[in-house]
Write a structure and sequence with these properties.
The complex is a heterodimer of chains A (about 450) and B (about 625).
Chain A (H helix, E strand, L loop, with lengths): L6 E4 L8 E7 L3 H8 E3 L13 E7 L6 E10 L10 E7 L2 H13 L3 E2 L4 H8 L8 H22 L2 H26 L10 H23 L8 E6 L6 H12 L16 E5 L2 E5 L11 H15 L3 E7 L6 H9 L5 E6 L13 H4 L3 E4 L8 H13 L5 H31 L4 H19 L6 H9 L5
Parallel strand pairs in A: 1-7, 8-10, 8-11, 11-12, 12-13
Antiparallel strand pairs in A: 1-2, 2-6, 3-4, 4-5, 5-6, 9-10
Helix pairs in contact in A: 2-12, 3-4, 4-12, 5-6, 5-13, 5-14, 6-12, 12-13
Chain B lengths: L4 E8 L3 H12 L4 E5 L13 E3 L3 H10 L4 H8 E7 L9 E6 L1 H13 L4 E5 L2 E7 L2 E7 L4 E9 L8 E4 L2 E4 L10 H9 L3 E8 L2 E3 L9 E3 L22 E5 L2 H9 L5 H4 L13 H7 L7 E6 L6 E5 L7 H9 L9 E3 L2 E8 L16 E3 L9 H19 L13 H12 L23 H12 L4 H23 L1 E2 L3 H9 L9 E2 H6 L5 H7 L7 H12 L1 H18 L17 H10 L4 H6 L5 H20 L1
Parallel strand pairs in B: 1-2, 1-9, 2-6, 9-20
Antiparallel strand pairs in B: 3-5, 4-5, 7-8, 8-9, 10-11, 10-19, 12-19, 13-17, 13-18, 14-15, 15-16, 16-17, 21-22
Helix pairs in contact in B: 1-10, 2-10, 2-12, 3-4, 6-9, 12-13, 13-17
Chain lengths: ~450, ~625
């Protein structure tokens, strides 16, 4: 939100388009461009010509290795999209490439833009006129809502729990330290420096573990969170198996977790889908029965795409209607399964409920009609109806960025401690680290420490 | 015959808040009337006979830096001074004084008596007189009407006060005084929202009945300390405190008699503070703790009363005595005053703005425990600011606000009015996000100029601070330029200090950056200018923590731009598309004056802030277009 910082973001939707665009805006844009761009002769460019397309490549400045061939475009302030110095890099449309490009920008001096921030800056710098103000606010609101939903939905239970654990360790530690500062005469154990170091280094190790799995692309993967719902015995597991059989991406089992959090990844026409919490789907069809309506609702609320399954060989039941009414305001594709059996279903009587949802008829058992399903999914994503894709990709990058930031801050605290600087300096670093981690899970530091102090210690007057 | 008197400012209550408010207003040139229900109890300390400690001590320094009175009076009445947290580095050093209660009151009365523009009177105020939400004056129990431009409410814990011991509950203020009953009703009728809080105090015990040999002595510091930047005291007679502990007998006694504890028997309705729990609450919430600390503190040279800190209670009198007798050293203790709990009405501080004036009423200010804070220092700090701003109101000048990055006073007031409080609020260093900037040693550098510009700080004080600021600037530059070359003596000293030798020439500045190297150590081997302890201390802090101070200053800058974006207090938040429902509700209730303040309200998210930025820009351009 602060104008002096340089921001970066992926400007295009992530999918199977042929071009992707990443943008940087702010005072450090030129410096960043110099660091990451090499022209066709493999040279650094010192002076970029305004509004000239440069062909060349984007590299990792540390190693010189290639990220992608790009077109690089400089728009100096004030005649740019945001009114600040702006650089655009046009890459190929692959999500992997866009990811890497964004990350390299974040490493060389930019910060990840908040949802809608480019537009916000454009408006605040007078590049968008007054009559568009309301539209601007709409964009910001919509993007934030989506981002928030995705931050919580995208964050798998496992990752969230791990970050919470790290955070709690640090918060506990901070509370003891600060309690001692505020109540020096109370019976609180003083700071044991070797013990403190051990604790903080352990936190850093835990963050490193999370980051390494992220690099390998296991836990923090992108993909639209997709939930399959339907009453028991409509054929969810066979639909799932058929989908996976043909389109399965890396099946990853997150180490050390229970079966509850197995996630399936598949790509459909280049669109990554992340099937959320399908435990039970594979072994039993009693999805809803097992989980109960409340949990189903929870999953649905964090979904980016819902596949609602009906059984064509039976007429629609109250249970179907109940599920229909639970559906969140995200894209829904109604799948009428078992067209291999005699049809009893009468969708016409449910027209008012189904409204504008797409309907696809198929047979999971016979593998018929899947092309239509894939088409439907593609349409739904590229009509921009689901923001899941871009947001989840970005959420991924944001998590990594925040984790790295927290690590640096904790490390600084350890250094302060080892250098013999007073406790106060370390506290500044640890509070910043808590703040960074909190931005992943959506918690704020401010009153937390005080609350924790009183919860832990019996403090008199 | 009723002759109506007129004053610029009327202050209701002569506790710590009231005294500071009255003094500030009078010193700034306003005719001021200080009303109290008991002239003998001006600046009374109804609880702990101490002033200061972490964060609280910082408040006292800041009050002094701004031209307030508490620091000076605390210095004159102190019977013990201790600098706390000395082992933890200068940024968290805090001064704490044990005060002779009667001496403290005497000192404050003397200060009040010196102001020609200040009158003091003993009379109970019954009604606040307002017309169309503008303050007109007050009505006393004698039927007198006193007209004024500004009223400062500093009624402490006296509004409908109720004192509770065991099963007896009696209308009254602290220490057996009257309560102010009718004023509450007058406030409610005017439309002011009140709530009910509680606090408590422990017993006082006769020093002659204590066996000190069974306790641990807690003496004062040998080094001389003062709160006030202007104090000229160079020596002081000190009295020690004593430490003992509760026993399993004590705990059992309390547990067996909890049914008689008003807190549990349902007799007390008010919300008490988490951090000053009665011993009953301590035993219940932390049952595994084997022994709780009990400090025995002297209340003054002219009394035998010893304050039993840590044993705040409202259990019946006989249980209190039994409790005391179960503690080592207090086996034969004779009670001089019983502990009690007190319930009182106080104001929801979110009705105030950052100047401590009511948002909805013109000319009405509130300060002290009546705002839901606890502690003498918190009260005095608010009183000072309310008094300054009352005077500014009379003179039709903008109010003086201390920002969160300028002082603990800023943190205190902002927390109260922006976030509100559900229990008596106590200032703590962990509430300040810029603790490294808000140090005990630099209160004058941060605030004296503000006090001078406001019209309260004397020329003498201001000149002293200006001189100090200049000297620090010059010395920092000089130390950066002064180079030293390796010499045997220097290397030896460095080794002794536990740090590495130098290879090439370095500046004194860079040497001082090392945590183990002190100015005095360097002075022993180099010829460096001689300076006062105070200046040396400052320089060392500024140099050694430069990196982290810079980090904090950067944090301040990052929020500064938001603080500078003003919001109209009449803004209709429901008209801003896209704001979350919770944000609309909270913003409408608090009516922040800047986007920075809005960001601190719980329930207002970064997205809401983005929208506010767009909206204010939209308004700004709309105006320009006109």
């Amino acid at each position: 939100m602060v104008e002096a910082e340089t921001i970066a973001a992926i400007a295009t939707s992530v999918g199977e388009a042929s071009i992707g665009v990443v943008r940087v805006s702010g005072p450090a844009s030129v410096k960043i461009a110099r660091a990451v761009f090499r022209n066709s002769k493999n040279e650094r460019i010192c002076k970029f010509v305004a509004r000239k397309m440069n062909y060349g490549k984007m590299i990792e400045p540390e190693t010189g290795s290639l990220i992608d061939e790009v077109l690089c475009f400089y728009m100096p302030a004030p005649h740019s999209y945001t009114g600040e110095d702006v650089f655009e890099f046009q890459t190929h449309g692959s999500s992997v490439v866009l990811h890497k490009a964004l990350q390299v920008l974040l490493r060389t001096g930019a910060r990840l833009a908040m949802p809608g921030e480019f537009t916000q800056r454009a408006f605040l710098n007078g590049r968008i006129d007054l009559s568009q103000a309301e539209a601007v606010m709409d964009i910001i609101r919509a993007k934030n809502d989506a981002a928030l939903k995705n931050a919580t939905g995208h964050l798998s239970g496992v990752l969230s729990a791990k970050i919470q654990a790290i955070r709690k360790e640090i918060l506990d530690f901070l509370a003891s330290v600060e309690a001692k500062l505020d109540y020096p005469e109370e019976d609180i154990e003083g700071l044991d420096i070797p013990q403190a170091e051990k604790l903080l280094l352990a936190s850093i190790q835990a963050i490193d573990n999370l980051l390494s799995t992220a690099q390998v692309g296991r836990i923090l993967r992108e993909g639209i969170s997709t939930v399959i719902v339907g009453r028991p015995n409509v054929g969810k597991s066979s639909l799932l198996n058929t989908l996976l059989g043909e389109n399965r991406a890396l099946v990853t089992e997150i180490p050390g977790t229970t079966r509850d959090s197995i996630e399936e990844y598949l790509t459909v026409r280049g669109i990554p889908l992340r099937l959320v919490d399908t435990a039970g789907l594979r072994t039993s069809d009693d999805y809803i029965e097992k989980l109960g309506m409340q949990r189903t609702r929870d999953y649905l609320n964090s979904a980016g795409l819902v596949l609602f399954l009906l059984d064509a060989s039976q007429s629609l039941t109250d249970e179907d209607l109940a599920i229909l009414q639970c559906l969140p305001s995200v894209p829904v594709i109604i799948i009428v399964n078992k067209i291999d059996l005699p049809q009893l279903i009468e969708l016409k009587q449910w027209e008012s409920f189904i409204g504008s949802y797409r309907v696809v008829a198929l047979s999971a058992k016979d593998r018929k009609g899947f092309a239509a399903l894939e088409q439907a999914i593609q349409e739904v994503v590229f009509m921009g109806e689901t923001q899941g894709l871009e947001a989840s990709c970005v959420a991924n990058v944001r998590h990594i960025e925040r984790l790295k930031c927290a690590k640096v801050q904790i490390l600084s605290g350890v250094t302060a401690l080892q250098a013999g600087l007073p406790v106060d300096c370390m506290v500044i670093d640890l509070r910043s680290a808590l703040e960074s981690l909190g931005q992943i899970t959506g918690e704020t530091v401010s009153d937390e420490v005080v609350r924790e102090i009183f919860a832990k210690f019996c403090l008199g007057k | 015959m009723n002759c109506v008197e007129r004053f610029d400012v009327v202050v209701i209550g002569a506790g710590h808040a009231g005294c500071e408010a009255a003094l500030a207003a009078a010193r700034m040139g306003c005719s001021t009337l200080l009303l109290t229900l008991n002239l003998d109890n001006i600046a009374m300390m109804p609880c702990n006979p101490s002033v200061g400690g972490p964060a609280k001590g910082h408040l006292v320094r800041e009050i002094d830096a701004l031209g307030g009175q508490m620091g000076l009076t605390a210095d004159s009445a102190s019977i013990q001074m201790r600098m706390l947290n000395t082992a933890k580095g200068p940024a968290v050093h805090a001064l704490r004084a044990q005060a002779d209660k009667l001496e403290y009151q005497k000192g404050m009365r003397l200060a009040l008596g010196k102001e020609d523009l200040l009158q003091i009177r003993q009379v109970l105020v019954e009604e606040l007189l307002m017309k169309d939400h503008v303050v007109k004056g007050v009505l006393t129990e004698n039927g007198e009407r006193i007209d004024c431009d500004v009223v400062v409410l500093a009624t402490g814990t006296y509004l409908r006060g109720r004192v509770i011991i065991g099963s007896t509950s009696v209308e009254g203020g602290p220490n057996g005084q009257r309560a102010a009953v009718k004023l509450s009703a007058s406030l409610v009728q005017a439309g002011i929202r009140l709530r009910r809080f509680k606090t408590g105090t422990p017993a006082r015990v006769d020093a002659r009945s204590i066996d000190f040999s069974r306790m641990k002595i807690q003496p004062g510091d040998e080094q001389m300390h003062n709160f006030s930047f202007l104090s000229e005291l160079t020596e002081r007679v000190q009295t020690p405190c004593w430490l003992t502990y509760t026993t399993e007998d004590t705990h059992r006694l309390i547990r067996d008699n909890l049914f008689q504890a008003p807190l549990y028997s349902g007799k007390i309705a008010g919300t008490g503070p988490r951090y000053c729990p009665s011993i009953e609450v301590k035993i219940v919430n932390f049952p595994d703790k084997e022994a709780h600390q009990v400090f025995i503190e002297p209340e003054g040279a002219s009394t035998r009363e010893m304050y039993v800190q840590g044993l705040s209670t409202s259990l019946p009198a006989d249980i209190q005595v039994a409790m005391l007798h179960s503690i080592p050293g207090l086996e034969n203790a004779r009670v001089m005053r019983y502990g009690y709990a007190i319930e009182y009405d106080c104001i929801d501080p979110t009705q105030l703005d950052l100047s401590l004036g009511f948002k909805d009423f013109s000319g009405l200010f509130a300060a002290g425990q009546v705002n839901g804070s606890s502690g003498y220092e918190e009260a005095a700090a608010q009183g000072l600011m309310a008094g300054i701003n009352a005077a500014r109101f009379v003179k039709i000048l903008p109010p003086v606000i201390v920002q969160r990055n300028e002082g603990y006073i800023g943190v205190l007031i902002d927390d109260l009015v922006t976030k509100g409080t559900n229990e008596p609020y106590r200032i703590m260093t962990s509430r300040a996000e810029y603790r490294l900037l808000l140090r005990h040693d630099n209160a004058d550098l941060r605030l004296t100029k503000k006090g001078f510009d406001a019209g309260l700080v004397s020329l003498k004080r201001w000149e002293k601070t200006a001189e100090k600021t200049k000297l620090l600037e010059i010395m920092l530059e000089q130390l950066k330029k002064t180079m030293v070359v390796p010499s045997e003596a220097l290397q030896k000293m460095l080794c002794e200090q536990g740090t590495t030798e130098i290879r090439t020439g370095v500046s004194v500045y860079d040497l001082l950056k090392r945590p183990n190297v002190s100015y005095s150590a360097l002075q022993s081997v180099l010829s460096l200018p001689k300076m006062s302890c105070e200046i040396v201390f400052q320089l060392e802090v500024m140099i050694k923590y430069e990196g982290y101070i810079k980090k904090q200053i950067e944090q301040v800058c990052r929020v500064e731009s938001l603080e500078g974006k003003a919001l109209s207090i009449t803004l209709d938040y429901s008209a801003i598309k896209g704001l979350s429902t919770e944000a609309i509700q909270k913003l409408t209730a608090i009516r922040p004056v800047s986007i920075g303040q809005a960001a601190r309200i719980s329930g207002v998210s970064p997205a809401d802030i983005s929208l506010l930025l767009i909206f204010t820009e939209q308004m700004r351009r709309g105006k320009h277009a006109e």
